[in-house]
Amino acid sequence: MIGAFTTGFASAFALILAIGAQNAFVLRQGITKTHIFWVCLTCAVSDAILIIAGIVGFGALVTAFPLFPDIMRIAGGTFLIFYGALRFWTAYLGNQNLKLSGNTASLKTTLGICLALTWLNPHVYLDTLGLIGAISTQFTELNEKIVFGVGAVGASFVFFFSLGYGARLLVPIMSTNRAWRILDILIGIVMWLLAFGLLKGVGA
Prior knowledge:
The protein is mainly alpha-helical. The chain has one domain (2-94, 132-199). The chain is 81% helix and 0% strand. The chain has nine helices and no strands. The chain has helices at residues 2-17, 21-32, 36-64, 68-93, 107-119, 122-136, 142-165, 167-173, 177-199. Helix 1 runs parallel beside helix 7. The longest helix has 29 residues, at 36-64. It is globular and about 50 Å long.
């Protein structure tokens, strides 16, 4: 059970760790101390819905198409290898920068932007419905799948609330290219480890 929880937590945390449009938005809200709680909650709950859908959906698909887990493991592993390589390449280039700007908006407008950045991002569906769902297939018992899901959902809540409320501490640290390089290298390593875990289970 501990292994299932740890795998779920680490997988979800690693996949949402890369700083993208959504996370940069959360950082900006954290810096300005504007609607932090609601923004973090919106992101985490959205992720939770997609993560659960991915895990449950995979169960139904596996019943109908027994070969589907292997297909998704190969597809997911391939993507993770590519994504990890991209992070290593970005670290090599060392030209990352974080742009945080904009005026304070109302709660309604802020949540509208947050929802758009979350639900209109195709990578969110790939990460949650696809990759998290694929990784969950290594756990065959219902209890293990539930614990895996709890770990993945927990990672989302921990990440977004830590990012939002810890923004004032993170931004000065992430203001240098060296810091971005280290972060990208760590993400790349995790992605490749996840890929290895997926691909070694093909045909098992």
